[in-house]
Amino acid sequence: MPEFLKGTMSEQAQQLQFNFAQAESAAEQIFDPLLDRPDDSSGRGYDAFQFAQAEAIRSLEHRFGVLLNQRVRIKLIGWDEEFEGTLRLAQLPRAATRKAELQLRIESVTFTGADIERCIRA
Asked: N or C, which end of the chain has less CB nearby within 10 Å?
């Protein structure tokens, strides 16, 4: 047997004797599958999430010149009527996305940034 394996053989034998059923039972006593998430009763975790989300939206608004998550009235190229509602992302943009490729939606109407003829706050 090679010298470098001599110390690990006893460790391997111990791993093979590991009682998975006992460990699973202990884990079930510790963790509730419905609550298997960090708990922050102060709400700081959720507040941080909301802050980061708002920062990301502001960054996208600035980068693409659109009014995300706001009530707007939009006129699309080639459409006679205007659409009114909350402008949302239809798909998360990749880092190299241009405004013309940005996927947006109002309700069930999906379009790209290049399709916008006019957009004003409603």
From this structure: N
Spatial neighbors of 18 by CB under 8 A, at least 6 apart, are: none
Is residue 88 within 8 A of residue 72, CB to CB? The reply is: no
Domain range for 73 = 3-121
Which among 27, 26, 99 is positioned nearest to 60, based on CA atoms? 99
- Number of structural domains the chain divides into: 1
